[in-house]
Amino acid sequence: MRIFKEIKTIQNWCKEQKLQGKSIGLVPTMGYLHDGHLSLVREAKKHCDIVVVSIFVNPIQFGAGEDFEVYPRDFERDTGLLEEEKVDAVFAPSNNEMYNPDSSTFVEVTGEITGKLCGASRPGHFRGVTTVCTKLFNICLPDKAFFGQKDAQQVMVLEKMVRELNFPLDIIRVPIVREADGLAMSSRNVYLDPEARQQALILNEALSEAEEAIKNGERDTARLKNKLREIIASSPLAEIDYAEIYDAYDLADVEKADRKIIMALAVRFGKTRLIDNRLVEV
Predict the structure, then answer these.
(1) Which residue, 33, 98, 141, 266, could crosslink 14 as a Cys pair with Cβ 3.0–4.6 Å?
(2) Is residue 180 part of a domain?
(3) Is the whole-model pTM more than 0.90?
């Protein structure tokens, strides 16, 4: 497994792989890997000849007061896991390598798709995501890039960016990986103390109950959203950022759950903000 720290070096290496006729799969991560990330790696290995994993805690997608400085990092552990998965290359640049001090170029997707959910509560977040992913796509030259459904809005934004800017690659969604008790895997789960960890299970429970209501004929999204919020509010530590239902393609408002919809949640347990979602097709 090759480990690259410099842009030009990995870019040249990726060019060599392409000249040999090999397809490249990219798995962008911020490190502190768990089975959710590894599921992306395994999916990439199914589809591509070469798998590149980036490990970079992207400073420009964190807002003031967010957890950039304390975001969990363990490069040695991460590379050990990726070695076991037989990843071909890891790209782990420094902040200065990715962003020159005088860097002032950004890529931004505007409109409803970035103005709701995490885009509303984390201004500038998706501009940071689309900018860093544009750079990673240009550096690693992937044929396919793999992202987890847990970050559903992020995937939708990147799909739109790739489609509208004509990137020569496919975005591949990989289903959410959950702990045995139903909690969606996240690098931020390590922040939870035992009580908060137990109470966080309410997220998956709320999504499951709302999905069951849809299966039983409920279509009114206002009532479904109220159901989500009431269930989550039964957890004393839960502080709801959002609990919303939108069209699963573009986050358009929907009054009736009569198409493919996404139920999306962001909830704080103490200082830890967790997200989860469920796609439902009637």
Answers:
(1) 141
(2) no
(3) yes
